[in-house]
Amino acid sequence: AIQMTQSPSSLSASVGDRVTITCRASQGVRNDLGWYQQKPGKAPQLLVYAASSLQSGVPSRFSGSGSGTDFTLTISSLQPEDFATYYCLQEYNYPYTFGQGTKLEIK
Amino acid sequence: QVQLQESGPGLVKPSQTLSLTCTVSGGSVSSGDYHWSWIRQAPGKGLEWIGNIFNSGSTYYNPSLKSRVTISIDTSKNQFSLKLTSVTAADTALYYCIRDSQKAAALDPWGQGALVTVSS
User: How far apart are CA A100 and CA A6, in angstroms?
Assistant: First the structure.
């Protein structure tokens, strides 16, 4: 199975900060990668699909980039509602695998 | 607007079978543009992909669960289902059903999740 390694596992930041979360695949996954946001008590929600395409309705401060093995999710200016846990997921081959998650907390 | 809703028992005894159904509204499980997935999340833990099913009935499962998992689809009821046999406490989790795009890595939308507790 492809291993997805996210970093950092946790992050403290302030409103207005620029934040970058990375995800590294143990082998190439082309651009078959999505980013998900999960708030406490809620189901995850799709933010970015195909590595860099913003899901409809997601604020433009979110962006994704990368291809192959290295991917990033960037939040250009943190808003209070962005404090959550973020996951990457590769769908290049089976079994699909998630990163371990990045918990973004308020500083 | 497509919506997914999980249903099934919230408590299952050890060694028994966990059964969940996902009802799809606002869209069709027969659509060739999507396939249908199950993902779970143990309390306080990360996300684990369980498996998926295509409208043809083809399935793919996580090898870690493969011997115990069956996903099926009922196009007449616009539903797909999950069965997990021989459950233990380690199978206690929130179980989500999700639509997955055939064209891109995009799991959306998600059901609200069904908490299943394995306990005697």
Answer: 6
User: CA of A25, closest CA in chain B: separation in Å?
Assistant: 15
Q: Do A95 and B106 touch (CB under 8 A)?
A: no
Residue-wise pLDDT for B8-23, tens only, equals 999 999 999 999 999 9
Q: What are phi and psi of A97, to 5 degrees?
A: -135, 140
**A72, A73, A104, B30, B84 from A19: Cα distances, Å:** 10, 8, 9, 40, 39
State how far the Cα of A95 lies from the Cα of B25, in Å rounded to an integer: 27
What does the alpha-carbon distance between residue B85 and residue A33 come to, in Å, rounded to a whole number? 30
Q: How many CB atoms lie within 10 A of CB B74?
A: 12
Of A28, A62, A21, nearest in space to A45 by CA? A62
**pLDDT per residue as tens digits for the range B70-104:** 999 999 999 999 999 999 999 999 999 999 998 88
Query: Under 8 Å CB-to-CB from B92, ≥6 apart: which residues?
Result: B42, B43, B116, B117, B118, B119
Out of B37, B49, B101, the one facing A97 most closely (by C-beta) is B49
